[in-house]
């Protein structure tokens, strides 16, 4: 008797194969439909915030992502949004965003509240910034000198001498906050910028009596303001006081004093001071070299300026656009158009450009020396500037050489 098992197996296998084929066809159709009708992929929130230009949509987008950690923990996205809303004068939106942020769990972190204080300050909303500081206990956030300094920094932007003084004297006592040297430096910098140099000095003296020792930033800020206000003797006295108290000058302090010496046409003294700082183990930077070069150029000591320029290269520094500008300007002024051309070509090829007046002087000098090929090359480089010079400026440069077009075509570049 024949067994039916193989036949049954075959039937089952056929049915299974058919089911598989059917399933594969269904899956294939489904996949085909999915490919033909893809679900739109939404750009990440940070990208959308960055790209949005409409203040209303920007606000709605930020609010929609108010609990998105990627957004609220991203300092750039936060600041950029507030700056753009401030630019659009939508201070109502700024208030809604920042007040809502205070209610998040991050609002219990002082660093997060400091950011909100500073953002209110940068938007020009000083009262909101100070209210945030005064109300920190409502968010369960402890005040320290960090949030005090943030509020103080915002307040100094008002340039209100009396209010700043009151805040500095009364608030620390009210909230049991110990001010630090950063607090002192914030106030001194603000007073110096406002022109209240005596008051700035008195703040330093009073705080020192309270045990807050001035640091090199304190002295440098005061000296810079004194030198700029033509009070060199007091500035020098402060330098001596700083050294006597064991506070050594840093690079910024030396640059401030070298700047003063150069302004007083004391190029040799500036050069000597640069040597002293090197002897103390403080390396000059591009600012130092530029100041000393400028000092020698102003004193018509171009050979010394060239030596300092060479020393800059010898120490591994590369000239920046300010050094090129200084050298080219004074080389042209004193008639050394060959070296001026070489330097101008070098810096222009790096997309660093002297100002238009300096380029004009160089073109006139090269034209006078009948170096038309060089003049044409400088003009060509000027026309390639990115971003470009204005058509007015380029027209002025072209006009210098317009009468010598025939010569320009015949002369080569050397």
TrEMBL record:
The keyword Repeat applies. PANTHER family: MEMBRANE-ASSOCIATED SALT-INDUCIBLE PROTEIN-LIKE, REPEAT-CONTAINING PROTEIN, PUTATIVE-RELATED. It holds the Pfam family PPR. NCBIfam families: PPR. It comes from Quillaja saponaria. This is Pentatricopeptide repeat-containing protein. Gene3D superfamilies: Tetratricopeptide repeat domain. PPR repeats lie at residues 180-214, 215-249, 285-319, 320-354. Belongs to the PPR family. P subfamily. InterPro entries: PPR-containing_protein, PPR_rpt, TPR-like_helical_dom_sf. Keywords: Repeat.
């Amino acid at each position: 008797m024949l067994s039916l098992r193989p036949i049954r197996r075959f039937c089952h296998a056929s049915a299974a194969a058919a089911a598989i084929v059917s399933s594969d066809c269904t899956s294939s159709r489904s996949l085909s439909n999915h490919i033909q009708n893809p679900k739109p992929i939404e750009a990440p929130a940070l990208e959308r915030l960055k790209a949005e230009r409409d203040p209303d949509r920007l606000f709605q987008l930020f609010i929609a992502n108010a609990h998105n950690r990627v957004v609220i923990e991203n300092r750039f996205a936060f600041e950029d949004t507030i700056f753009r809303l401030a630019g659009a004068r939508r201070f109502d939106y700024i208030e809604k965003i920042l007040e809502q942020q205070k209610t998040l769990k991050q609002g219990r972190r002082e660093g997060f509240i400091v950011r909100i204080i500073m953002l209110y300050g940068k938007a020009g909303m000083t009262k909101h910034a100070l209210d945030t500081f005064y109300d920190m206990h409502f968010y369960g956030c402890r005040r320290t000198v960090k949030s005090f300094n943030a509020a103080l920094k915002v307040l100094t932007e008002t340039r209100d001498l009396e209010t700043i003084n009151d805040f500095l004297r009364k608030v620390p006592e009210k909230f049991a906050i110990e001010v630090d040297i950063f607090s002192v430096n914030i106030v001194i910098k603000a007073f110096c910028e406002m022109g209240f140099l005596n008051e700035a000095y008195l703040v330093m003296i009073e705080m020192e009596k309270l045990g807050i020792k001035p640091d090199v930033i304190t002295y440098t800020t005061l000296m810079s303001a004194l030198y700029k206000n033509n009070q060199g003797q007091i500035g020098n006295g402060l330098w001596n006081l700083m050294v006597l108290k064991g506070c050594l000058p840093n690079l910024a302090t030396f640059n401030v004093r070298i700047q003063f010496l150069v302004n007083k046409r004391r190029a040799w003294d500036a050069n000597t001071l640069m040597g002293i700082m090197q002897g103390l183990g403080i390396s000059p930077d591009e600012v130092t070299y530029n100041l000393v070069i400028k000092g020698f150029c102003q004193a018509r000591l171009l050979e010394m300026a060239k030596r300092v320029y060479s020393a800059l290269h010898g120490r591994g520094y590369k000239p920046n656009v300010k050094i090129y500008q200084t050298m080219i300007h004074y080389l042209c002024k004193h008639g050394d158009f060959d070296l001026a051309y070489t330097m101008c070509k070098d810096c222009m090829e790096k997309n660093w450009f002297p100002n238009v007046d300096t380029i004009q002087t160089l073109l006139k000098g090269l034209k006078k020396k009948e170096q038309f090929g060089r003049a044409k090359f400088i003009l060509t480089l000027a026309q390639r500037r990115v971003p470009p010079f204005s058509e007015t400026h380029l027209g002025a440069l072209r006009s210098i050489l317009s009468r010598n077009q025939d010569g320009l075509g015949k002369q080569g570049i050397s």
